[in-house]
Amino acid sequence: MAETPSISETSLKQALTERLKATHVEVIDESGGCGQAFTCIIVSPEFTGLRVLARNRKVNTALKDEIAVIHAWTAKCKTPAEWAKETGASAAPDTAAFAT
């Protein structure tokens, strides 16, 4: 029998950073720690030129296995330029996201 993967804020952040080349990821466990409901902000250059639905499909494809075991999932997908405009931050990649 296949083991259910352990889903956490950290594992989702790592997966999004790697699979979508995200420059900024914020993940919040809304379930009180049981790993069943997450909200996140994902900033990736891979969203450039895509409409909201296409961005969300890209995220859902990247996290197919993880989303299959999560009860509730909300993602806000931004390009680096959109994120910079919204937050006043630089559009340059967040080097902390790539720290090991």
From TrEMBL:
Domain of life: Eukaryota
Record-level GO cellular component terms: cytosol; nucleus
Gene3D superfamilies: Phosphatidylinositol 3-kinase Catalytic Subunit, Chain A, domain 1
GO MF annotations, alphabetized: 2 iron, 2 sulfur cluster binding
GO BP field: intracellular iron ion homeostasis; protein maturation
Family of the protein in this entry: Belongs to the BolA/IbaG family.
Name of this protein: BolA-like protein
